[in-house]
Amino acid sequence: MELGLWKQLGVDPKGRPWYLEVGSGMEKTQRIADEKKGYTLTDRGTWLATRDKDKLDMVIVLEGDPALFNQYGVMAVNPEKHKHVKFKEALEFVNWMISKEGQQAIGAFKDKNGNPLFIPNASGK
User: Fold this and answer.
1) pLDDT by residue (tens digit) across 19-62?
2) Same-domain pairing of 32 and 86
3) 76 lies in the same domain as 52
4) Model's pTM, two decimal places?
């Protein structure tokens, strides 16, 4: 996502002295950005889970911009291509996830401090 945003701006950051490619997971990337007093893109779940634990001296600069939208989805695997899948059960799960009950459960999922981690947006049944 980050490189896509740079591309939209017409900038190739790779190889520039101000750009550091970490090549690690989000948690480690956040720690490195904190140590170097830099910036990074991160997902809300990782941020909330690690900001206190890692004692990060960072603040959110921007959130809620549509360009940063990170959609999660759910789908069943095609049983014609993968005979071992439990397609019926997968469809039951998918249908529950997009149902009113599933969407409420997603919206109610919070971290230990009560911060919501996901924003449900399926149309439901």
Assistant:
1) 999 988 999 999 999 999 999 999 888 888 888 888 899 999 99
2) no
3) no
4) 0.71
